[in-house]
Each structure stands twice: as structure tokens, then as C-alpha cells.
From TrEMBL:
Pfam families: Rubis-subs-bind. This is Rubisco LSMT substrate-binding domain-containing protein. Keywords: Methyltransferase, S-adenosyl-L-methionine, Transferase. It comes from Datura stramonium. Gene3D superfamilies: Rubisco LSMT, substrate-binding domain, set domain protein methyltransferase, domain 1.
Amino acid sequence: MDLVYSPMAKCIAAPFPCFTHRPLAGFSRVSVSPKYANARRLWRMCSASSSDTLVDGSLKEGRKSLEVASKKEDEYADLKSWMHENGLPPCRVVVKDRPSHNAKHLPIHYVAASEDLQAGDIAFSVPDSLVVTLERVLGNETIAELLTTNKLSELACLALYLMYEKKQGKKSFWYPYIRELDRQRARGQLAVESPLLWSDAELDYLTGSPTKAEVLERAEGIKREYNELDTVWFMAGSLFQQYPYDIPTEAFPFEIFKQAFVAVQSCVVHLQKVSLARRFALVPLGPPLLSYCSNCKAMLAAVDGAVQLVVDRSYSAGDPIVVWCGPQPNSKLLINYGFVDEENSYDRLMVEAALNTEDPQYQDKRLAAQRNGKLSVQAFQVCVGKEREAVLEMLPYLRLGYVSDPSEMETVLSSQGPICPVSPCMERAVLDQLSDYFKARLACYPTTLSEDEALLVDADLDPKKRVATQLVRLEKKILNACLETTVNFINQLPDHSVSPCPAPFAPTLK
């Protein structure tokens, strides 16, 4: 997945030393001198003549690029050789490849053990000189903190830097690493791109899932960051002085920036116990060459001027090396890395409940909820395998919404703990509301659980549809478990045929 291609490298390109940090520019917005106008017009003419660009999240691969892609490597050394030439000490891994599902795309590279490893062994140690961080990009930790607090995410800043670097072509120190990111194209373990790069038709695979809305919201966030790029360019002295002619939003169309952002998102590492300017890092030999695994505990760590990987399990020579991706649900794994983990013990869904603001006793109920650690609009996390516990956590909150008698409300306010007077008809009303809610969420999906399972048997299923189907299938399993728990509670009522109490101000669920 190309970070960016621009003919500017052929027209106006000033190569620069990769490790040189120049003084920072001023904090105020800087105007571009009129003497640069002709250069900028020339850039636009060159850019307009190019047909080799990324459009709608896909790579236009012409015949020439496919011929180049068919070669093992060009005259430049491969990634690992380049790293050894620039300070990587001997390590115990090798870069291998697996075929892509799309014959037009290059194979996926991955890091594998070059010899047998045992838990506690150091697989590799990448020196800081080969790691890209905001400290390197912006040249100053204070500026890095300011920008990422008030303007842009770390991902946007790193993406902008690599886009400028790629315009240098083979003159860039980072050329072998950027070429590797281009090869990977932000593809996950199933060679699938993040849904941020899917078409509208492909996003429909996620219909019914809250993940679809998350994707659209994230895409809007990327657009907002794109609109702030010029501010970063003027504030970051290193970028401003290295590229005096290239205003970001003129140099890079939004689709190109989005491609780069997603590529960086798929491989950025969150380091612990380092300064803010170094906490997000791009590490050659790290992701996406390393596979993510939810039940793994090995993590890349900053150690004595390097980023090191200590393995947490035994490997035979040739085995892919895996690392932990943090406690992320499958929705985040799909959006960030393009895959779903069937064994993800951190998978979860959210249920949002809100007290009715039209209720005459709303303020008293809000106070009662706060005393018990809940908000007037409360998000409940339903973790896989703990659906019963999640339903039990929701019940006291929902019961509070059904209290209608002022004297009962006084009892609730004076009690210690989440205590509400519970009658069979109130409990039936609460459980019926929960049951109807889970049924409604399941009905939003266009397929049933059994239909999803039948789809996944098809070996020729489109990979994007496969990961989307995996995701919605796991979501439905969580919702079905919640529904089954709720129905069991209904059946345990003293008289489960009792009519539910009326509730004109019942809480809302979504």
C-alpha cells in the first residue's frame, strides 16, 4: 500500500541528511514567499500529469509496476540487509513471505525465527537510529507534545513525515523501509486491508455491526487531521526547512494521506516508559512484519538505546514470530490491522443505557446512579465469556429507571448500595426490555449466525467478506449469550407469566 507517490521528486526535490535536526521554526503561521510561486505552479503541473496515484484506497498497478514487482528485489538491498548495514546487530530472525490472496499484489512479508528459540530469548534488538519517532520527525519533544495534544495524532505526524521522505525516492535513508511498508499495503494477517480503505459496497459486509459506524467516524477524524496538516508543516522547523516548497495539502491529496495514515496505523508500536515524543514508534522488523496475537504477552520494549523483542514462547526455526497487540476487541483489530482473532479473550461489545430526562425524578435518579459509580448515560462493556456478569451489572441501573413512587425513590436515596424495591412485575418489565433490546440488535444483521458459519466454510470466500463475517459472527455470539441469560432470568421469576409493570419513563438502551 503506497504511502505516497509524487512526481515532485523529479521536478523539485531537495534531498536532506536523514539524521540532521535543524532549528525549529516559529510558532506563528508562516506565509510562503512570492518567489516560490513559480515552483509551486510547476509542482502542480507535474502532479497533474501523473497517472500513477492511489485512488479510492486501491493501488493502480500498471504493467510496468507488475513487471518490477515480479522481481525478487531490485539493486537495493532487502530490508534486513539494509538494517544490518546501518547498525542492526546480529539477530535470530529472518524475513520470509507468504502469497497474497490477490495475484496483483506482492506477497506478504513476515518475520520468522531463523533458529530454535526459547521463552526469554532476545529475537532482535533494533537500535534507535533505525526507529522513527516524533522526536526524530519534529526535532523537539515540546513541539511534539504540543502538536499531538492540540492538533494532530502521532499517526498523522508520522504519516506526513514518511510521505515527505518517500518523495525523495532512493535518496531517502528510509527508502528500504518505506518500500517494505508499500509492499505490505496495510494488510493484516489474512492479507486484508483495514476497512478504512474498503469501498462502500465492502463496508456493507459490516451492516448491523457498530464497527461500521466506527470506521466512518475514524475516516472523518482522518479528514479533520488532513485539514490541519499545513499547521504542522509551518510549526515543525525540520519539515518546514527541508521542504520549503511543499505545503502538505497541496503536495498530497487527501486519498494519498489517508493511505499513508492507515499504513502507519497498521505498524506503529506504542512503547512504554519513554518520553512522549518517543512513545509511538515505527520499528523495522516490527509490525506488520510481526504478527499480532491476543494470547501472546511478548511486546516490543525500549531498552538501552534500542527497541527489543524478548519472545514469550518456544519457536522452531521458520515459525512466524508473534507479539501482543494489547487488550483490543476484534472491532479495533479489524480497523487497525485488518484481521479478526477468533480466540480473542478481550473481545467485547458496548451497551449504552440512559436515564430518561423527562422523568420527574430524573435528578434524584441521577444522584442515586452517581453514588453507585454510574452516570446518567452509562456505557456497559459486555466481555466475551462474561455476558451473564454484564447483564447482572445492568439490572440495578435499569431497575432505578423503573422506580415511579416518590417514597420508593426516597428509600433508594437513603440506602447503601444499588438497592431498589423490586416487584415481580418490575423485574419482568426490566428483563423484557433487555430481551427486546438484544433481539433488536440481532435483527439489525442481514444474516443469521448459522448463515455466517455456512459462509465461512467456503474456501473461496472474498477475504474482506471473510474477516467481516468473522467479526459479525463473534458479535452475534455475544448478543445471543446475553439474550439467553436474560431469558433464563425471566424463567426464574416466581411467576414468569406475570405482566410487566408500566414504565412511562423507562431508561433507553442503544
